[in-house]
Batch of 2 targets.
Target 1
Amino acid sequence: MPAIAVLGAQWGDEGKGKIVHLLCRDADFCVRFNGGTNAGHRVVTSRIPALVGANGDDEPTETQEFKFHLIPAGALHENCICVLGNGMVIDPYALVQERNALRDALRGREPNIYISYGAHLLLPYHPIIERLEGSQSALDTTAKGIGPAYRDKAARIGLRMVDLLFPKTLPEKLQRVLAHYQSIWPEVKELQQFQSEALRDELLKLTETFRQRIIDTVQLLHDALEQEKQIVFEGAQAALLDLDFGTYPYVTSSTATIGGIGSGAGVPPSRVNRVIGVAKAYTTRVGHGPFPTEIHNDLGDRLRQQGHEFGTTTGRPRRCGWLDLVALRYVSKLDGLSELALTKLDVLAGLAEIPVATAYRYQGSTLHEFPAVCEMLSECEPIYEKLPGWDEPLGECHHFSDLPRAAQDYVRFIEDEINLPLSLISVGPGEDENLWR
Ligand code: IMP
């Protein structure tokens, strides 16, 4: 049974949630290994969620939309165990809220979740610190406190999920980190109001119902591998937002590439048999940072409207641009992709021609490799190949051969340029709007 990784191959929002949901129909485990509530994984299902995967004979009903921020998108399948790995930073208030909402949507069925001992807690002071430090506005982050939470982890003053199992030592640990920040901002009332004992009591009460689900998930996953269970690893954010390999400093604070599975779930990437990169048929980015193929005219607005390119987590309008094969080739190398899933091909219908970047021009020379250095990338001009467009809507296409000729050629062009098979093409948000190849 394979272990499959589903990883963002651009700057996030590629539609990973839907792919993970589809793959988890047959999976035993779905594992998140990075990020926190900055992620927003959207799944539109046309089935009765309480029955999805349990009987396999569920009757289609009207569509229903789910937005996952912390809980892995495999959670709609009753037989799929969801794991929140040690590489995550978890806001316990948001987790309780998301779990309760999901339980209601699943008609009372408790989502099957386990949380790693080692996952860090993102606590109410983290978003405050992010705002005070100004990184929220300088980088245009999601304002969830992600950077400060990961920094506490690296500075070894962070609190972890396992600390909730040791109430006696919890106030002491909270006191250490609170004293640190309260001494930096003595005048900020919002920060001064936190008291370690009161916060401990609030956290213990809040997490009462899921504390027994905080376990050694490394062992759980290795047992699963031993028993040849099928595992889907769900990446959050994407390679170009990776802390090390993305467009630093306009990145998130976690490892969104394949290595995150090792450091954020305790499973060596060598155990992963299929690595699926997910890319849109065009490109989007939220937040600041260089974006060579960004469109600065009406066509950008058109893609934004047609593709509903507004953030799932923050509602921010996404910047829109053409597909960038220079970036995709870089990501393919970083992640060792075995295949690509191309999403939102339907959004491109109606364009006379579709530009695709195959190289960059930088200071008079042609670059075929992606320079993940902002100073260079912001000076790169894309060199476009212009491919013919098509007018027909794609929503009714069920097989690759149903696609208009120009759409088939668009897909084949990408495959040839990045030297990867496109195993899945998505032509709409619904779980049945896919062409598997
Ligand atoms: P942070 O992760 O909130 O610190 O934000 C850092 C950068 O990553 C900002 O530009 C965000 O817009 C971006 N970002 C973080 N999470 C996501 C995501 O799930 N999708 C798209 N962009 C994201």
Target 2
Amino acid sequence: MSTAYLIGKPVGHSLSPAMHNAAFAALGLPHTYRALEVDESQLRATLERWRGEDVLGANVTIPHKEAVLKLVDEVDDEARAIGAVNTVARKGTRLVGHNTDKYGFEQAVRSIRGHSVDDSGYPFVMDNVLVLGAGGAARACVLSLLEHKNGVLIANRDRARAQRLAGAMAKFDTYSRGIQVVPWSERGTVVDAVVNATPLGMHGEDPLEGAELPLWVVDLVPTAEETPLVKRARSREYGAVVDGLVMLLHQAARAFGLWTGLEPPLEVMRAALPRPV
Ligand code: NDP
């Protein structure tokens, strides 16, 4: 029996164990998935321990995705481009870093029907897509948006971190729609679409409280109840909404495939979520 972990802080709220444990059971695999709260100071030792244990790998969540990239033995091209690792797979004594957030984000935005504007089903080709946050998840979303010809604005509480992200991603802006940093205090400015890649919403906050919402609202925050932002966006008669649970499902499915080498039972994983998506 092998174990897969979720490491981060906090992890108690996570919906990932239910999905992965349901998938292991459905395929008759004797594995378990456990959430493990890990401080930054414990990260290196935790990863070190896994080399000699019966561990499939791990998901990495807030706030460790950028730090883990520097602690694994190998990093795949996508995780390297994003600059963050959200999935670790053990190959013998070596730990390999991957990133399934970009895939999860793309599957989630493609899941909205009737809005596709390119052959791949990607629904955004816009001048001003505002990304809230500049951490690991924001990095994956910004890369995806730039690859699909969007103009990106980044607003982050720590502006210097947003500037570092914009600088690192500038080379992917091959369609030259631009990547800019805007002050966190101006995140309510009217844009074409918004992607919330902060944890605001986890405890009932609305990161855009009081502001008019753009046509497209993507909230990465995966919660058992809809977040206030998702609720508010859904209450309109227009526009499209992407719920963090959909991204959670798809990033998890890809991680499952990386650990097991098997086709993930997507519908089993979907059914393990706390509400239909
Ligand atoms: P990181 O720790 O890498 O980044 C966190 C980001 O959120 C930073 O930009 C940070 O800003 C910002 N932030 C944190 N707290 C606050 C706050 N109180 N007010 C404003 N900004 C804040 O985390 P991740 O990027 O990995 O995750 C971000 C969110 O996205 C989490 O809620 C996570 O659950 C969600 N997520 C969902 C996924 C899904 O599949 N649905 C996948 C990945 C992430 P600063 O730099 O100023 O500290």
